[in-house]
Design the sequence.
């Protein structure tokens, strides 16, 4: 676990010498007059599993879209894996993996064919060995020849993760990865995320609503409220600071209520 | 290299969805229909002529020359010109639309562009797949036409080269419509609008512009073969003709194709007042403009799009 002080948009960032794989300053995204993300300043250290929390419409997906270079920020700056998200988008994409909410792949292609296609787009010339390796890692080898349209939600999620990690990224972005999964699927996904972090050293940035999963998975959490980052700290510090609260859910609600006040 | 993978993926997808085979079947049928109708009409008139020769000779009358004695051998494929204008361009729009909307329908756009893939590579891959599919379909049609002509009429190297030249021109004509289908498929979030817009453009180019540019010659709308008669002499209609004729791409395609196939009747028609070289330039401009539309569409393509295509 990495120690980090509480940060909101008005305080100074931590000046430790750790390597930041995500380092953004005053990142803002506006759609006309609507501000989706406002002055986001955030650092995520290498090796962390960062849980990004927030209400519906808080700006979590917009934030991930900016960090993965899918969306141009209105203002601000940022680096992911050492590359500028505005000027070095292709370099950023070589170092990241991304799994959007509600994983969609090509239904008429098999799991293997999907992975082969995305591998080649990632720059892997002969991906055969890597594909089988990742399928084995994710326990999906036996599903390789099945069409995506025939797979369960949980298995599609695994194939989705496979395409995101096959090129050995430094950072993996997961947008609501547990969305639509049953409890068993959620547990399996949690195990995969922990193994990715422990065995492959991948930093994970995860949007999620499932607070009980955050307590079991994440090392650091951040809370976004109406586009503004109102809280960031390690999970352990958070639990100590809010020791009167019985669960992360209550802590989260307290943080949100304090912001409202 | 990524463009190549994109193109390969598109073509595999068209094969799986059987879109390619459906289009190919349609083109095979129209190729066969074209040469058969061309041959049948000649054969029918020739038969009538032969019977009339016998009758006239028995009456000791002078026998007029056969109306088909000086017809070019490729006369029997003349209907392919109309079929390309009416059907081929629509098929090209359909293929382009399918290619343009595939990733959005699958909901994979964000995953695609989370890879080190530029919009330019993506677009080149899409356009390449469209071009290759149209090329393959027209190549099969060319082979069928060549064999049909060889069987029903005659074939030589010169005639084969003329046929190839005709199909090259047809390819570029159809490619423009394919670009429109692809471009609007990428640009528009609503699938109905994405397909309807290029179809409306097709209607304007195929029907409206020829009507307005051939306003002086109302019988000339679709058939490039029959000689035209100027039945009205109006400065207003002349002005309308002069304004719209340069933009009537389908007519220029027909004039150019007819010239390539050496269809003598068309070169004598009085409404074709552009030379084949100018027609070729206008066709080239058509391809350039539609590729410009395609390039513009990519600038409007939202790679953060997550929802399944409407």
Sequence:
């Amino acid at each position: 676990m990495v120690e980090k002080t509480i940060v909101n948009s008005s305080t100074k960032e931590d000046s430790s010498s750790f390597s930041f794989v995500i380092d953004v300053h005053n990142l803002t995204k506006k759609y006309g007059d609507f501000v989706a993300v406002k002055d986001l300043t955030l650092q995520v250290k290498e090796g962390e599993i960062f849980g990004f929390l927030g209400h519906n419409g808080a700006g979590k997906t917009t934030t991930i879209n900016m960090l993965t270079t899918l969306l141009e920020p209105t203002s601000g700056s940022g680096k992911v894996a050492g590359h500028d998200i505005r000027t070095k988008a292709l370099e950023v994409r070589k170092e990241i993996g991304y799994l959007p909410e509600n994983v969609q792949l090509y239904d008429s292609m098999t799991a293997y064919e999907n992975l082969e296609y995305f591998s080649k787009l990632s720059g892997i010339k002969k991906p055969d060995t890597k594909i089988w390796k990742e399928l084995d890692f994710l326990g999906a080898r036996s599903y390789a020849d099945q069409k995506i349209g025939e797979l369960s939600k949980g298995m599609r999620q695994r194939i989705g993760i496979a395409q995101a990690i096959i090129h050995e990224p430094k950072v993996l972005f997961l947008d609501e990865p547990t969305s639509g999964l049953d409890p068993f699927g959620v547990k399996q996904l949690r195990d995969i995320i922990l193994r990715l972090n422990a065995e492959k050293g991948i930093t994970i940035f995860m949007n999620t609503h499932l607070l009980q999963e955050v307590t079991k998975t994440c090392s650091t959490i951040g809370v976004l409220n109406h586009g503004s980052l109102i809280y960031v700290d390690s999970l352990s510090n958070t639990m100590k600071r809010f020791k009167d609260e019985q669960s992360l859910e209550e802590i989260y609600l307290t943080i949100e209520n304090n912001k409202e006040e | 290299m990524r463009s190549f993978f994109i193109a390969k993926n598109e073509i595999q997808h068209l094969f799986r969805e059987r879109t390619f085979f459906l289009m190919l079947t349609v083109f095979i049928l129209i190729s066969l229909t074209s040469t058969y109708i061309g041959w049948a009409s000649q054969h029918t008139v020739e038969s009538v002529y032969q019977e009339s020769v016998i009758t006239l000779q028995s009456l000791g009358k002078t026998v007029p020359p056969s109306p088909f004695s000086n017809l070019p051998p490729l006369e029997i494929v003349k209907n392919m010109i109309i079929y390309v204008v009416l059907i081929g361009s629509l098929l090209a729009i359909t293929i382009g639309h399918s290619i343009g909307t595939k990733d959005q329908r699958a909901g994979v756009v964000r995953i695609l562009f989370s890879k080190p893939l530029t919009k330019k590579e993506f677009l080149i891959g899409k356009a390449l797949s469209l071009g290759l599919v149209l090329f393959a379909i027209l190549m099969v049609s060319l082979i069928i036409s060549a064999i049909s002509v060889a069987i029903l009429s005659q074939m030589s190297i010169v005639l084969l080269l003329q046929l190839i030249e005709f199909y090259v021109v047809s390819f570029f004509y159809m490619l423009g419509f394919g670009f429109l289908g692809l471009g609007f498929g990428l640009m528009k979030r609503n699938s109905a609008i994405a397909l309807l817009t290029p179809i409306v453009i097709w209607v304007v180019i195929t029907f409206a512009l020829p009507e307005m540019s051939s306003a002086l010659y109302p019988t000339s709308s679709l058939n490039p073969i029959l000689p035209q008669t100027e039945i009205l002499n109006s400065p207003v209609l002349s002005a309308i003709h002069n304004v719209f004729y340069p933009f009537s791409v389908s007519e220029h395609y027909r004039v150019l194709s007819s010239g390539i196939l050496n269809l003598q009747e068309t070169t004598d028609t009085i409404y074709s007042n552009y030379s084949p070289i100018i027609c070729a330039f206008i066709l080239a401009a058509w391809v350039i403009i539609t590729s410009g539309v395609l390039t513009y569409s990519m600038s409007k393509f939202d790679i953060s799009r997550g929802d399944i295509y409407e």
